Amino acid sequence: MIGILGVLAVAVASVMIGSRMVGPAGLFDAHAPGHAILEARLPRTALALLVGAALGVAGGCLQGLTRNPLADPGLLGVNAGASFAMVLAIGYVGVSSLHTYLWFAFVGAAVAALLVHGLASLGRDGATPGKLVLVGAAVTAGLTSWTSGVLLLQHHTMDVYRRWEVGTVGGRDWSAVAAGAPFLAVGAILALAGSRTLDALALGDDLARGLGRRVALDRLVIGAAIVLLAGTATALAGPVGFVGLLAPHLVRATGTAAYTRVLPLAALYGAVLVTVADVVGRVILPPTEVQVGIMTAVVGVPVFCWFLRRGRLGAV
Fold first, then answer.
1. Do 52 and 243 form a contact (C-beta atoms < 8 A)?
2. pLDDT in tens, 142-163
3. d(CA 159, CA 46)
4. In which band, very low, low, confident or very high, does the pLDDT at 20 lie, cut at 50, 70 and 90?
5. Hey, which end of the chain has fewer CB within 10 Å, N or C?
6. Longest C-alpha distance within the chain, in Å?
């Protein structure tokens, strides 16, 4: 209940607060001063809530799937794969439509996730949590380097990409929300349906098999959910870091450990984090705005360091 109230509070604040403060009455009066401003902020607020919720759930799924508290879509190459695919689409295919961005982002995120899992599976013991993180960091570094190389050769791509790479929910309309909502809904359903699977996997693969779980199929379903959620969020808003890492830990700090509760609450916490970061970014350096991808890092780093110092990182 507190999480839902928090989401409603930050949604109202996001609609009202900006370079110009506007009262909520303008929403219901088309002739009121500021009505146009409120209408422009509504899709931005909806997009911030969706992106934050998607990244929160994706981060929780990844931490459960890898049994690693440091896992998030950015660390395991998912965001880097989506970014690299979009740069290739802009630079060599001439893509300029958000709807097409989404498909390239999915392909890039899926290929990166499969590559990380495939490489981590080589050798003894298979894809252990530690190997997944190391391989994910290496793949992320490699894809980021390739992305930079393409941008250096394609100046037009650089012009388009630089407005997207910092992570922003501004300048979007309802068409962006409508384009991403179906994919996010499917991803959320798969993730929430797999929450009991994550609870079983937390006991270890052998015990999970003993409980009747088909571990390989379960990992595939949850991996598809992560690709849909993280790939869509990245295509809509650009790379937004720390939300997938931090939101599940904020939930666990309340004493909640079961994924049947961690994932829904991580969605609420992630939505609040991104929306608050967007609102603060609008007013912290007037008359300009600081993009939400920067603000989540500005807010997320000290909070995460506080968690580390206080030993509040919960077990996954």
1. yes
2. 998 988 888 888 777 777 777 6
3. 27
4. confident
5. N
6. 69
Q: Which residue in 164, 187, 222 sits closest to 50, CA to CA?
A: 187
Tokens of 132: 């997944």
Q: How far is CA 284 from CA 15, 175, 289, 292, in A?
A: 16, 28, 8, 12
pTM of this prediction? 0.86
Q: What is the DSSP letter of 27?
A: G
- Which sign does the torsion angle of CA 40, 187, 302, 142 carry? negative
10 CB-contact burial (10 Å; exposed 0-12 / middle 13-18 / buried 19+): buried
Among candidates 73, 172, 64, 145, which has minimal Cα distance to 116? 73
CA 176 to CA 185: how far, in whole Å? 14
- CA count, 13 A, side-chain hemisphere, 111: 14
Q: What are phi and psi of 76, to 5 degrees?
A: -100, 20
